[in-house]
Design goal:
With 290 residues, the protein is of the alpha/beta class. Helix content is 50%, strand content 16%. It has helices at residues 13-22, 44-60, 71-84, 96-103, 113-118, 127-131, 133-142, 154-161, 168-178, 200-207, 217-228, 237-247, 250-256, 270-288, and strands at 2-7, 27-32, 65-68, 89-90, 120-125, 148-152, 186-191, 212-215, 259-263, 266-267. The strands form 2 sheets. It has a 6-stranded mixed beta sheet with strand order 4-3-1-2-9-10, sandwiched between helices. A 4-stranded parallel beta sheet has the order 6-5-7-8. A hairpin with a 2-residue loop joins β9 and β10. The longest helix has 19 residues, at 270-288. It starts with a strand and ends with a helix. 44% of the residues are buried. Bound molecules: D-glutamic acid. D-glutamic acid binds next to α3.
């Protein structure tokens, strides 16, 4: 099946990566709307206009389903495009539910019961995701004990688009953003923006300990598999495939993994493909360090 996956920029590569790993036999079109990144600082009307155009693009390309690999775009535009198009449209929302579940259990099995009792959840997302109703109604439903706090991290999107993931500036920014919180009280950080998956190391360093970092990628790909009736594969087979391809040229990764890449509607150029290869490599490394 042909599956369209898009984001405002490179964040969606983390969702594509997960999809390639667990649904390796499908064809993918990945669309990064980098002409308009960051969505997280745009108006709702602008975001709806961008998303509408992208779904129309995927319909024209005869995709069987579309994944909005962007929490921001989902919060603002998913309802609108679902009412306009017949194609299944899978959205993303910050993974608060699994985070609350984890917060009630020891981290990595080595926590004390005190941590368990005080385990709070910090949701990092874009300013738009944090201000939209979608997240607030989710919290009203599931955060009955008021354990969840929200933190906008817009600069991480800019760092990610410039492929700056781990330097002192990034860590300094994260430290500054979390400095108003009593960080010892948190056992979980929700990566509520797909760009943030790339900052696992920097976020852990800023917290200075091995905090749980939870993104919505696995849940999204499982949901995609359910909607399309596909078998979610748990083997690491495709990771190896991506790894091998990454060692070769970016053109190979494109063919081997059956992904066509687009940048705001234009076919990706060699330099773009090189960039996507670097991002898949980084995700492989982060996975190895889990
Ligand atoms: N990656 C997107 C998300 O998951 C948003 C990044 C942006 O601000 O464009 O929310």
């Amino acid at each position: 099946m042909k599956i369209g996956i898009f984001d405002s920029g490179i964040g969606g590569v983390s969702v594509l990566h997960e999809a390639l790993e667990h649904l390796p036999d499908e064809e993918y079109i990945f669309y990064a709307d980098t002409d308009h990144v960051p969505y997280g600082l745009k108006t709702s009307d602008q975001i709806i206009e961008y998303v509408d155009e992208i779904i129309a693009f995927f319909v024209k390309e005869q995709a069987s389903a579309v994944v909005i690999a962007c929490n921001t775009a989902t919060a603002v535009a998913a309802e609108y495009v679902r009412s306009k198009y017949d194609i299944p449209i899978i959205g993303m929302e910050p993974a608060v539910k699994p985070a609350l579940r984890n917060a009630a259990a020891p981290i990595g099995g080595d926590n004390t019961s005190t941590d368990k009792e005080s385990g709070r959840v910090l949701v990092m997302a874009t300013p738009v995701t944090i201000r939209e109703n979608k997240l607030h109604s989710l919290l009203e439903r599931i955060d009955t004990e008021h354990k969840v706090d929200l933190l906008p991290m817009p600069e991480l999107v800019r760092f990610a688009e410039n492929e700056i993931f781990e330097d002192e500036e990034v860590e300094g920014y994260i430290r500054k953003q979390i400095s108003d919180f009593d960080t010892d009280r948190y056992s979980e950080v929700v990566l509520g923006c797909t760009h943030f998956t790339f900052f696992r190391n920097a976020i852990r360093n800023a917290f200075g300990r091995n905090i749980d970092l939870i993104d919505g990628n696995e849940g999204t790909v499982r949901h995609l598999a359910d909607v399309l009736g596909l078998k979610y594969q748990t083997s690491g087979q495709t990771s190896d495939l991506i790894r091998e391809a990454s060692e070769d040229t970016s053109d190979t990764i494109r063919r081997t993994a059956d992904v066509e890449y687009y940048i705001s509607g234009r076919k990706a150029l060699k330099e773009d493909l090189d960039r996507f290869t670097r991002l898949h490599e980084r995700l492989n490394q982060l996975q190895d360090n889990l």
